[in-house]
Amino acid sequence: MKIILTHEVSGLGAAGDVVDVKDGYARNYLVPRGFAIRWTKGGEKDVAQIRRARKIHEIATIEQANEIKARLEGTKVRLAVRSGDAGRLFGSVTPADIASAIKSAGGPDVDKRRVELGSPIKTLGSHQVSVRLHPEVAAKLGVEVVAA
């Protein structure tokens, strides 16, 4: 099935790309979650609009991405959350929580969709988080989760 991506999908493409995927993947995952729309002749006009919006939000050059990476890796991020007695959290830490904690710690403004968690953060302590700034540049960020 031919689809138009509306968001960046790891391993598939960036917003505005027209890709072919298996029917079930598109119908059951990408389209319902809003990551893609079905390709039509009329939908081809949307591609230009999506690409324009992507250019506004994306980091243009590798040099710019490396500057932001240096600023991110120099930022100390502490996140205060509610937890139980054994150090387990009530819920988990989301990429949106991490993006807002980076901004409040004085770091650069990061889109929550660029924050990649290997597994959900459900315990107190220090955790490593990856922030994909550019297809070739990713920053490793230490996040300290503390009890509120």
UniProtKB/TrEMBL annotation:
<keyword id="KW-0689">Ribosomal protein</keyword>
<feature type="domain" description="Ribosomal protein L9">
    <location>
        <begin position="13"/>
        <end position="40"/>
    </location>
</feature>
<protein>
    <recommendedName>
        <fullName>Large ribosomal subunit protein bL9</fullName>
    </recommendedName>
</protein>
<keyword id="KW-0694">RNA-binding</keyword>
<dbReference type="Pfam" id="PF03948">
    <property type="entry name" value="Ribosomal_L9_C"/>
</dbReference>
<keyword id="KW-0687">Ribonucleoprotein</keyword>
<dbReference type="InterPro" id="IPR009027">
    <property type="entry name" value="Ribosomal_bL9/RNase_H1_N"/>
</dbReference>
<comment type="similarity">
    <text>Belongs to the bacterial ribosomal protein bL9 family.</text>
</comment>
<dbReference type="Pfam" id="PF01281">
    <property type="entry name" value="Ribosomal_L9_N"/>
</dbReference>
<dbReference type="InterPro" id="IPR036791">
    <property type="entry name" value="Ribosomal_bL9_C_sf"/>
</dbReference>
<dbReference type="InterPro" id="IPR020069">
    <property type="entry name" value="Ribosomal_bL9_C"/>
</dbReference>
<keyword id="KW-0699">rRNA-binding</keyword>
<dbReference type="InterPro" id="IPR036935">
    <property type="entry name" value="Ribosomal_bL9_N_sf"/>
</dbReference>
<dbReference type="InterPro" id="IPR000244">
    <property type="entry name" value="Ribosomal_bL9"/>
</dbReference>
<dbReference type="InterPro" id="IPR020594">
    <property type="entry name" value="Ribosomal_bL9_bac/chp"/>
</dbReference>
<dbReference type="InterPro" id="IPR020070">
    <property type="entry name" value="Ribosomal_bL9_N"/>
</dbReference>
<comment type="function">
    <text>Binds to the 23S rRNA.</text>
</comment>
<dbReference type="GO" id="GO:0005840">
    <property type="term" value="C:ribosome"/>
</dbReference>
